Amino acid sequence: MNTLHTIAFTVYPYVCLAFFLMGSLARFDRDQYTWKSDSSQLLRAGQLRWGSNLFHGGILFLFFGHLFGQLTPHAVYGLVMTSSQKQLLAVIAGGVAGGLCFIGLTMLLHRRLFDPRIRLTSHRTDIAILVILWVQLAIGLSTLPSSLRHVGEPTTMLRLAEYLQGIVLLQPNAALVAGIEWHFQLHILLGMTIFLLFPFSRLVHVWSGFGTVAYLFRPYQMVRSRRLNVPARQNLPRRAS
């Protein structure tokens, strides 16, 4: 079990990141026409609009919240808040965003599974990735009661943050996640698995979403008007009436 734990939390993260980066590049190079999210907006448009807005708004908040919340060193955020305050903020903000995201994703999943026309045009990978994301959100929400109980002594949060920072710095330490509650460990492993599956699913369109930010920094396009040489109107003789 110790060996399996070490492989899962030391080797597996880098396998997932390698597939995430190299797989995305390979798909963009070889299958650019699949680099999109298939649209079914003409069917159940109302449910799609509500579900999509709730899901995308919530998932973006959760992504950047995890990114900056877990990877920001304690010495940096310690200038403005304590560890307990940070954990309480994460529980409240993450709980609200996670709940909205969960509702939106449930609406999208229900729409794709129970509408025969949408189900017929859906790829198996579309349904599979939605189910995986739904389970991941459910596990994440299940960690909130434990996180709330540990606000006074946020040892688990600090250990998880140190572990993830070690992954980024190429200094993984699987011992940091040993002994913590099982749903935290499962949440980490399933999150890594999503990175592994990313290039093989419709999630690759996320790259295009982030890529649109580059348009904010593009120089203006110069458009010059071209004057057409229109011949002067000739005075033709009129026929006598």
Descriptive notes:
The chain is mainly α and 241 residues long. The protein has a domain at 43-184: Transmembrane di-heme cytochromes, Chain C (Fumarate Reductase Cytochrome B subunit), CATH 1.20.950.20. Helices cover 66% and strands 0% of the residues. It contains 10 helices and no strands. The radius of gyration is 26 Å and the shape is globular.
Q: What is the arithmetic mean of pLDDT? A: 86
DSSP helical segment count? 10
What best-fitting shape do the alpha-carbon axes yield?
Answer: globular
Uncertain runs with pLDDT below 50, 5 residues or more?
Answer: none
Based on the coordinates given, report the CATH architecture of the domain at 43-184: Up-down Bundle
CATH topology label of the domain at 43-184: Fumarate Reductase Cytochrome B subunit
The biggest beta sheet is recorded as: none
Spell out the CATH superfamily of the domain at 43-184. Transmembrane di-heme cytochromes, Chain C
CATH class of the domain at 43-184: Mainly Alpha
Helix content: 55-70%
How many β-strand runs?
0
What share of residues are in beta strands? under 5%
Please tell me how large the radius of gyration is.
26 Å
Order of helices and strands: HHHHHHHHHH
Amino- and carboxy-terminal Cα gap = 108 Å
| Helix vs. strand class | mainly alpha
